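Listing 4. Sequential folding, example run.
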Amino acid sequence: MTAATIPPATHTPFTNKLVTHTLGFPRIGQNRALKWALEDHWRGTSDRVALHETARQVRDDSRRWHREAGITRPACGDFTFYDGMADLCLLFGQAPQRFGDRPNDLDSLFALARGQQGEQGSLAPLAMTKWFDTNYHYLVPELDAARPFRLDAGRLLEEIKESLADDPSSKPVLIGPLTFLWLSGGASREERLTRAPELAHAYAALLSEITALGAEWVQLDEPILGLDLPADWLAAFEPVYHRVKTPGLRLMLASYFAPIDGRLSLLAGLPIDGLHVDASSGGELEAIADRLPAFKVLSAGVLDGRSIWRADLAALLDRLEPLHRRLGDRLWLAPSCSLLHLPLDAGEEAEADTALPPALVENLSFARQKLVELQLLARGLAEGRDAIAAEIEAATAARQRLAALPGRRDDARRERLSRSLDREPARRHAYPDRARAQQARLRLPAFPTTTIGSFPQTDEIRSTRRAHRRGEIDTNAYERAMRASIADTIAEQEALGLDVLVHGEPERNDMVEYFGQQLDGFAFTRAGWVQSYGSRCVKPPIIWGDVARARPLTVEWSRYAQSLTDRPVKGMLTGPVTMLSWSFVRDDLSREAVAYQLAAVLREEVADLCAAGIAAIQVDEPAFREGLPLRRAGWDGYLDWAVRAFRFATALAPTDVQIHTHMCYSEFNDIIAAIAALDADVITIETTRSNMKLLDAFAEFEYPNEIGPGVWDIHSPLIPSVAEMVDRLELALDKVPADRLWVNPDCGLKTRGWEEVRAGLRNLVAAAHELRERARIRSSRAG
C-alpha cells in the first residue's frame, strides 16, 4: 500500500439537493504564501500591491478548491490579513482612543495588531488571547462606550463582491454580534451587553449592504453558545436576532466547538433560517431535528474540523441516513467548524519524499480532503451507499492498516506507566523548604532576571539546521555550529547582566516538534502548517502511536551551556499538556492517557537533567488553560489529570532544583487553584498587554510561590523603555510580594532580532536594578 491511496483533493461533482458548505478555510495559502508576503511587507521589501496580489491568489485558490470538490455553498468573507476580530473592531469603528480616529484599512489593522510608535511614545497593540480551546490567537477589541458603532465595511464588501462574482452561491461568514461583544474587552461584560441593541443595528446595516451585493445566505458565528452563558446573555439572543434579520437574506446561525446542550428551545425559536451545530462528537442531531421548525435548515457538522484523521464514512452514514430520510433537503452537511484549524492539503505529504509510513499518510485528511469527504457523504446520502462503496471500503481498510502499524500500541509500557501512577505524584518537600534550599544553591538577588527560553533564530541558525537535515553537513559540523551559538548566547546574557540564563535553543525548530522528533509515537509532516496568529504559523506534530523515549533529549546541550558559566542555566522542556494540545492527537486513545505517556518521558528527562547538575528546569505549559472544556461541567476532570501529568513529570526533582513553568495569554481567575496545584517554584506569565491585570487572580488567591510577570511584549516590535518596565513592575509589586517577584519578558525571543533583544534585555536588567535600589531606599527609611 502506497501513500497514493490518500483521498484525492478533487472530486467529480454530482447533481443532488443536499447542500454542502464550509464555515471557513485556511487563509495562509500554499507554502504559507500570505505569511511571507506579510513579513516582506512589514520589512519594507515589498509594496502593498504585491501583498494584495498574494492575498487575491490565496482567495482564488480557495474558491477553486471548493469548486473542484463540488461544495455547494463555499464560505467567503472569512479571509483576513491578520485577525477577524480585529477586522470587525475596525469595521464597526472601535479602534482604541490611543490610535485616534482610524479608517478601516490595512495600516490600521497592522497598528492594532503590532502596535505603533506615536508622538507620545509607543502605542500598545490590542491584547491577544486564545480563540476558545484552539491554538489560534485573536486580538481582543477594546470597546469604548464613548465611541458609537459606526459602519466602515468597504474592505469586507469588496471581498464578498469578489467571491459572489466567482460563485453566486457563496455564503458570507461573520462573527456574530453577541460573540463579538462577549470576547471583547474595554468594559465589563454587563456594560458590553447593554450595547447589544446598538451593535445589532450596525449588523443590520451591514447585512443590508451584503444583501444588495446579491448574497442569498449569511452565516453568523456564535460559538459562545458552547459556553456556560449567564441568563441575561442567553436572553439577548432573541431581541438581537430580531434586529439583525434582514429582508431578502437568509441567516444561518452557527455554533461550534461544543454541543448546544440546553439551548435548543431558544435556538429553535430564533428568527433564523438555518442552524449549524457541531456534531463531531456525536449525539444531539435527532433531538434537534425533533425541535427545529419544518421551514428551517439543519446543518450537521459531522466532519471534525479540527481532526486530521480520515473520516469513517460508514459510521457517519449510519448517523446521517435516518436524519436524511426525515429532513430531505433541509439537511445540510458541513465540517464542525472552520477548517482554519487544519493544514491545507495532505496530498503534499503523499507526493513528498517523506519518512511517514504509508499507513499513516493514507489516513490523513487536511482541509482539502475534508471538502471531498463532505461531498462523498452527500453523494452517499443522495444516491445510496453503493455509489461510494469503493471509497467506504478504502477508508475502512486504511484505518485497519493504521491500527496494525508497529508502534501503535505497547502493552508492556502501558502497564509500567499504570503502576507508576498508582501513587499521587508530588515533590518531596513543600515550597517554603524548597525555596530556602534553592536560594542557598542559586544565591539569586532580589527581583532576579531571566528570559523565557529561546533567543533569536537567525538565518544562519536556520540554514545550518536545514543543511544538516538535508545531509549537506555532517553531525559533527552541525553540533559545532550549535555549540558556537550557545556560547554566544551565554556570553550575551552574561554581558547584559541576567541572573538566570538559558542556552537559547538554537537546535530547536519548534518547542513541540523538537521533542517529538526524538520520541517514539510521533510523526512530522512536510507542509502541515496551521495559522497561530497573524503571520505566525506552526506545524503541529502527529501523535499516532504510544510515546516513549529511547535516550535523553536535552541533557547534553544543557550540560554544555552550564559548563560555560557560573550562573545557573535553566534546562528547557515543553510540558505534557502543551505537547498534547499543540499536536494532532490519535483518536483511538483518550487525551488523558496520552498526556500521562508524555509526562512519563519528561519525568525521565527531568531526572537526567538533575543528575547532570542542572539547578533550574523550566517545564513550559502555555497551553494549560487552552485544554479546558468549554463547559464547566468538564473542568474538574480535565484539571485533575492535567495537574497530575505536570506533577508526575516534575516530582523527581530534588529539593534544591528550582522548577519553573511558563504560561501564555490566558485568563487565570477561574483556574488559579489548579495553577497553584502544579506546585512549580516559579511561574512566568504574559502580562504586558493586560498591564498586569492578569496578576489580580494571583493576588486574590494569595498565590504562594514565585511569579515572573512579563514586562516586555515580544510579539510587538516596540521596545519598552526602562521607565515603562519599572512602572509595570511597581504595579506588580502591589500584587506580588517583593521576595517572590521575578523580572522577565512575556515570552521567548526567537522571533525577534538580536538588536531588539539586546535593547529590550538591557532595559529589563536596568529596570530590575532600579527596583532593587528603590527597595534598598525603602528598607533604609523603614530601618
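-- end of first protein; second protein begins --
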Amino acid sequence: MARSRVEYDEIGNTFLYAVLAFYALILIPISYFLWPKCQKRTAVVHAEYECKCEGCNIKRKKRQTHGPKQGKSNIIRYIVLAILWALLAILVNKTSNIEVTHEEYDPYTILGVDQGAETSVVKKAYRELTKIHHPDRGGDAEAFDKIAKAHQALTNDESRENWEKYGNPDGPKAAVYGIALPSWVVSDQYGYIFLFLYVLILMIGLPVAVSYWWKNAVKYSAQKVMVKTTQIFYHFIAKTPKMEFNRIIMIFGGSAEFDKDENAEIVTRENDEKDVAKFMRELKNLNAMNREAPLSSPYGVKARALVHAHLTRLELWSEELEADLEYTLKKVPMLANEFIKCATQIYFYYGPERSSNLETFELATKFTSYMVQALWPKNSPILQLPHVEEMHVSNFRKHKILTLQDVAETSEKKRKLALASLTDEQYENAIQVLATMPKIELEAHVEVEDEDEAHIITSGALVTIRVSLKRTTILDNEKRLRDIAHEAAVANGTASPNEEKPVVGGKKVWEKNNKKKGGNKKKKGVAPKKSTVPKTAAEEEEGKKEGSESSRNENEDASQNDEDEESSDSDSIDGESDDEEFFKRTQKKPNFDADNFETIPVHCPLYPEEKYEWWYVYMFDKKSKTLTAPIELVKTLRDEEMKEIKFMAGGKGLYEFTIVVRSDSYVDVDYSTDVKITVKEPEVIPVAKIDYGVDEDEEGHGGSDTEEDYEVTDDDSDSD
C-alpha cells in the first residue's frame, strides 16, 4: 500500500481559508466587547425640575464634561470595528473568487471515445493517438503516458478493476494530507521562528491569559463584591454582633475593595501617610489606634478617614483625595447590601441570641442614606434640603419642627420665617426639592395560602403578609400653590377666608369621577322638595296622605333596590370559585430583582453619582424585638408595588409585628405599620373507627384462631 504524504499550500488557496476562519473566530468576541453599551434609562421623574444648588450644578457640569469624552471613545470604537469588518469582507471576497479544480480520472475522455465503447473502438483510438503522441515520433511523453494508462484501464481486467474501485488504473494512491501553510514555514531558514511563535502564543500566552482572567474572576461573587470582603464581614459580624455606627464604618473601611493588593484600581501615593495624619488632627472618633487587621491597615484607616470627612462635610485639600473619596462612595450601596445580607444569614442561622440585635440592623439599613446625604446620625434630616444650614435648623427647632415631614406639614408662613435668610429663588428651590421627596403609604393583608380558610392562622402554618407600597410625595406642591393664591386673594379682599380654594388647572385627568353608575336609581335618604305656596287644610290633609303613601312606596323601592344590590353582590362573591380565588392570589408578582434598577432620582448633591430610590423592607416582633423574615431590598418602586413577607406561625397566642419600609437614599424617611396576628391551635381531626366485623367475644384475641381452638379434648376422642 502506498505511503501517505503531506502537501503544503504553495498557491495560497487553503491558507486563505484558514486565515478567514481564525479571523472570524476572533472578530466576533472582539466586536461584542468593543461595541458601545447602550445605557437604558427608565427613571421616572415626578416633576420636570432640576435643583439649582451648588452641589447639583457641579454634578451636572461633571456629567456634561464626561459626556463628550464618552462620545469620542464611542466614535473611535465604531471606526475600529468598521475597519475590522471591512477587512473580513475583503477576505470573504477573495476566498469566494478561488476556483476549485478537481477532475476525476476518465479514460474514455482521454482516448476521445464515447462512454461504454467497444474494445475494438478503444484499440483503434489508441493506435491513432500513439502515432501522434509517441515520444519516438516527437510527441509528449507525459501525454503518451496518460494515453497508455487509459488504454490499459479499458483493455486490461486488473487495471479496469483498479480504476472502477480506486479511480486509478495503478491501484490506490498515496493519502495526501493538505496543510494550509506554505512550505517555507518548515524550512530550515524560517522553521524555528514559526515554532517559537507557536510556543509563545498557544503554549504560553493563551494559558497565562486564561489563568489571569480566572484569577480575577474568582475574586468576585455574583453581586460583584469581593469574596474576601464577604469573609471580612462574616468574621466581624460574628465577633461583634451588636455594633454602633462607628463600628460599621470601620468594617466598611476594611473591605478588600480598597486594598491595593486585591484591587488593581486602587492607587497608592507617597503622601497618603501625611494625609491620614492630617485627617487624624481634623477629625474625632477616627479610632486610628485600633489593632484589628485589616481594620488597622493603612488602606483601612484611609478609607475610614475619607468616610468621616465626607459625613462631616469637610472640604478636602487635594484632587487626589477627592478622587479617592468618589471611588469609596461609589462602593457604598453595594457593600452596604452585602453587609446586611451577611448579618441576616448569621441571624437566621445561629439565632437572635448569638447574632446582631435589631438596633444593629436599623443602623445598617440607614448607613447608605447617611453616606448619600453626607450626614451623621446626630445631624438633623432637614439639612438634606438645599441651601439649608445649621442656623435654619435652629429656627425650625424653635417651632418644634424636627423632620422633613414636619417641614412639609407646617404652614407657609412658618417655613418662610425659619428660612428668612434665603432668597426667594433659594427658598423656592428648597421647597421644590422637598416636593420631590417620597412618602410611602402602607397596607398589609395577612393570609395563609393553600388553606380552606385563608384568614385563620394556626400554629406552624406558613403565613403570608402582602404589603402594598404606594409612593407619593411628602409635599403636595399644587396644594401649596393653591393655599398661597387663596391667602393672597383674602389679603386683597377678593375672596373670603371661608371661600373654597380654587383648583389650579381645573380637574385633573387622573381624578376619578364621583358620578355613580346607574343614574336612574333613586337616591337613598333624599327628602322631596317642599313647595313654598300656602295650602288649605283639606289640601294639607290630602298632601299628608299622598306624602305618606309616596314615602312608603319610596321606602319599599329603596329596600327592594338594597335587596337586589345585596343579592347581586353575594351572587358575585359566591359565584367566584375557589380555583379563581387561588389563581388571583398566586398570579405573577412583580419582579423586584430586575436587571434595570433605575427608578426615581434622588437629590444628593454631595454624592458623586446619580442615585436612585431603593427601599429596605423588613418585619420584626414588637415584644421580642426580633426579625421574623430576612431584610429585602426593593429596587423597582416607582408608583405602586406589592411585596410578600412569609414566615412560620408560632405557638398559640397574640402576636404584634411592625413592618418597616426605609429609604436607602434619604435620612429619616422610613414608614411603618403594625400588624396583629392571632394564632390558634390546629383543629384535631377525629379518626373514624373502622369496623373489621369482629364480635365482642372474639375481641380478646382479635378474632384470629389460636391453638386452643384446635386442641383435641378427651370427649372429642371418645365420641370419635
